[in-house]
Amino acid sequence: MKLAYMYATPDVGHSKVTAIQGDLEPTLEHIRRTGYTGVEFLVRDPSVLDVAAIEDAVAKAGLDVPAICTGEVYGEDLISFADPEPARRKEAIRRMKAAQALAERFGASVNVGRLRGRFTEGIHPDQTMDWIRQAVTECANAY
Q1: Fewer Cβ close by (within 10 Å): the C or N end of the chain?
Q2: CB-based contacts of 41: which residues, under 8 Å, 6+ apart?
Q3: CA end-to-end span of the chain, whole Å?
Q4: pTM of the model
Q5: Over the stretch 15-27, which tens digit does the pLDDT of each residue have?
């Protein structure tokens, strides 16, 4: 069995997401020394990340990357596939595709998590589910 620890990438702003935190390279090394064999990256906007630095740090630490987690797209920015505003749904899709591109570099999976969104008062649940379905379909067909 392999164990992975979730690390919030530098684009994630608040400090209470994970217990082990800090600059990328020394933190990944600390995660490895703690006994983990992998690291899951928790992202907010993967398009702003220094992917080369991430790849380098992962290689130096000798960790696997099993997953990219997108929960903080919603957690920090409240952007989701279920947002009533079309521009915000489009941004959620853009960020998911950026997470997919990052995941592809590591052969990792992407966790949709809170990015899927929530039901909103005044919006019929069927409409919300249709928005989510459309977004997931578009992202799935992108890769």
Answers
A1: N
A2: 6, 7, 9, 54, 65, 67, 68, 69, 102
A3: 28
A4: 0.92
A5: 677 778 889 999 9
